[in-house]
Amino acid sequence: MQDIQDPGPARAPLVMVSREDCIAAGECARIAPAVFDQDDADGTVLLREGFTSADPQLRKQIRHAVAACPAGALDLVEDD
């Protein structure tokens, strides 16, 4: 199962997570806590609601979190 952030009309980049691939390392939540959280039950990644990945600083954190994920469970799809 993948959680996908709806980019809305502004066409912000899509943030996708695969909980099946997640190994609960927590790097994403440490690097970008406004975007990623961990499930209390098993530690796997959760995508928070209410953030905008169009924000340049937050987008930088998301890119860092995607690159740091040891399981490759995160993806950022950008139009630019």
UniProtKB/TrEMBL annotation:
<protein>
    <recommendedName>
        <fullName>Ferredoxin</fullName>
    </recommendedName>
</protein>
<dbReference type="Pfam" id="PF13370">
    <property type="entry name" value="Fer4_13"/>
</dbReference>
<comment type="function">
    <text>Ferredoxins are iron-sulfur proteins that transfer electrons in a wide variety of metabolic reactions.</text>
</comment>
<dbReference type="InterPro" id="IPR051269">
    <property type="entry name" value="Fe-S_cluster_ET"/>
</dbReference>
<dbReference type="InterPro" id="IPR001080">
    <property type="entry name" value="3Fe4S_ferredoxin"/>
</dbReference>
<dbReference type="GO" id="GO:0009055">
    <property type="term" value="F:electron transfer activity"/>
</dbReference>
<keyword id="KW-0003">3Fe-4S</keyword>
<keyword id="KW-0249">Electron transport</keyword>
<dbReference type="GO" id="GO:0005506">
    <property type="term" value="F:iron ion binding"/>
</dbReference>
<keyword id="KW-0408">Iron</keyword>
<keyword id="KW-0813">Transport</keyword>
<dbReference type="GO" id="GO:0051538">
    <property type="term" value="F:3 iron, 4 sulfur cluster binding"/>
</dbReference>
<keyword id="KW-0479">Metal-binding</keyword>
<keyword id="KW-0411">Iron-sulfur</keyword>
